[in-house]
């Protein structure tokens, strides 16, 4: 163990990269949940802030009454940032019980569900329910499988907004390519349209809107 907190946190995160299946990764998050917020603050983890900021120029409705689905919500950092920007209604889903406990303690969510995405069915009752769907820090190798983006699209209302982040690190390039291919395929199928892609320090954020089929 190093005396440098930054090096210790980096070592913790690198050990997470060793877990290869979503189940293993979620076990890792179970053991990390209590320290997660403190550790990612040491690393200056900005994805929740950047993602929340990126939604604003594309969202024109009432923030107060907008239903936001926070997928792979973890301890609630994304909802915390969205709340600062005027959003109030949050539903969260995550595979890790311990991360969900932290999210519950934040008091930000109306509802929280445990679901190992990609291995358990996405809650069907959410179809067409959300004005904004966020997934931050979880679309990467060994975490949420690419196929789940179809569920995110289904969960959004027609004309709603979906904000996704992924990583461009070398260990994630194959995943990122597969993700981009799936997003383009869905656009060809008329399921959504891309409104913005932003590269941030090598990471990628994308916003898409489900296409409103009934006008
Ligand atoms: C890096 S954290 C991000 C949490 C939060 N979105 C944030 O930005 O702080 C990744 C989260 O994804 C969850 N996760 C990873 N793979 C998952 C899966 N297949 N199903 C559900 N949750 C998953 C983990 O439990 C963890 O809470």
Description:
Residues 68-160 form the Methyltransferase domain. It comes from Oryzias sinensis. This is Methyltransferase like 27. It holds the Pfam family Methyltransf_25. The protein is an alpha/beta fold and 215 residues long. The chain has 2 domains: 5-42, no CATH class; 47-210, 3-Layer(aba) Sandwich (Rossmann fold), CATH 3.40.50.150. It has helices spanning 5-17, 22-42, 47-55, 77-84, 97-106, 149-155, 173-188, and strands at residues 67-71, 89-94, 111-114, 130-139, 156-166, 192-200, 203-210. Strands 3-2-1-4-5-7-6 form a 7-stranded mixed beta sheet, sandwiched between helices. α6 (149-155) links the parallel β4 and β5. The longest helix is centred in the N-terminal third of the chain and has 21 residues, at 22-42.
Q: What's a quick, concise take on this entry?
A:
InterPro entries: Methyltransf_25, SAM-dependent_MTases_sf. With 215 residues, the chain is α/β, with parallel strands linked by helices. It has helices spanning 5-17, 22-42, 47-55, 77-84, 97-106, 149-155, 173-188; strands at residues 67-71, 89-94, 111-114, 130-139, 156-166, 192-200, 203-210.
